[in-house]
Amino acid sequence: MLADPQYREDTVGTTGLPLSAIGDSVMLGAADVMRETFVNGDVDAAVNRSYYPLYNITAQRTADGTLGNPVIIGIGTNGPLKMSICESVIEMCGEREIFWLTTTNNWQFDNRDTISTLGEEHDNVTVIDWDTYSDGHSDWFYRDGIHLTPEGRKAYTQLIRDTITETLWNKLPEPEDHRVLIAGTEDLLGAVQYLKADSGTDILAEADPQALKEEISALAEKNILPENILLVLRESETEIIAGLGIPAECSLKVIVCGSGETEHILFDLNEEESPFLLDGLHLNDETEEKLASLIQNEAGKIRK
Fold first, then answer.
1. Using one digit for the tens of pLDDT, what is the confidence trace for 189-238?
2. What is the dihedral of CA 258, 2, 195, 269, to 10 degrees?
């Protein structure tokens, strides 16, 4: 589907970002998992850390040029946050993206409002609501409800990863849309195995023409169809094109697998020697591979 989570993460380059993470003992517990996940990142976490060490570390790293981007902050467990210090930290970060995690011990130090206010007042500050996300997952915490079990460390890191991806994806400039939805029926199902993986391509294959029609119509209704669509249909199925509900602004190409004349691109089965399996219905491996080559070629033309 259009812009699926893995495509978004790959586009943003989340796991390769040169981030700086500064945190207290909660982050310290997840530090190894974070380092494994963010291979170019730096994780600086320690026990009993509060906002003054955060200020000093940010100032030092800003001065010596080692403060990464984005900046992940996990401070607030060890006392109330002082707004003026937090504002100074944000100012030192400049135009860097900042991600600030909420804490789970708000019964002790209620920092939720402070962190939320920072997110509301600064365009480059995103709140990662670990408190809400982790609610109900007692297995993620030790008995204090604060520090992380092995499963909690994974969940903590995954939430950071997902939030960075979605935030930075939504801030990307709108690209010229060269993504292609390759959609089709029975013959596409067989050809898929020969298509080369391409992050600029979405594939939707259904054996039944009516099921394909319903899938495409649903995407159109949700306004999440790519602007470029390449249909792969059998000669007897082209009648479904009119009922797909594809918006006028979308560009549509159609490959017809058949042997007659067509206004579309013809994958001429008459040119193939024995194109079918013994059932006389399904394409054999060689023909499927040739079809995949044609699909790949047409999709490549669209992306140029």
1. 999 999 987 767 889 999 999 999 999 998 988 888 888 999 999 999 99
2. 0
Distance CA 72, CA 197 (A): 33
CA dist 253 and 302 (Å) reads 9
Residue 90 has pLDDT above 60, yes or no: yes
- Residue in the block written with tokens 């990464």: 68
Enumerate the β-bridge partners of residue 204.
183
Q: How far apart are CA 268 and CA 153, in angstroms?
A: 56
Amino acid at 115: I
Distance CA 304, CA 294 (A): 16
pLDDT at 176: 57
pLDDT at residue 7 tops 90: no
* pTM of the complete model: 0.63
Q: What percent of the chain has pLDDT over 90?
A: 80
**Residues 21 and 74 sit within 8 Å (Cβ to Cβ):** yes
DSSP labels, the chain? -TT-HHHHHHHHTGGG---EEEE-HHHHHHHHHHHHHSTT-EEEE-TT--HHHHHHHHHHHHHHT---SSEEEE--TTSPPPHHHHHHHHHHHTTS-EEEE--S-TTTS--HHHHHHHHHH-TTEEEE-HHHHHTT-GGGB-TTSSSBPHHHHHHHHHHHHHHHHHHHHHHSPPPP---EEEEESHHHHHHGGGSPP-TTEEEEE-SSHHHHHHHHHHHHHTT---SEEEEEEEGGGGGGGGGS---TTSEEEEEEEESS--SSEEEEGGGSSS-B-TTSSSBPHHHHHHHHHHHHHHHHHHH-
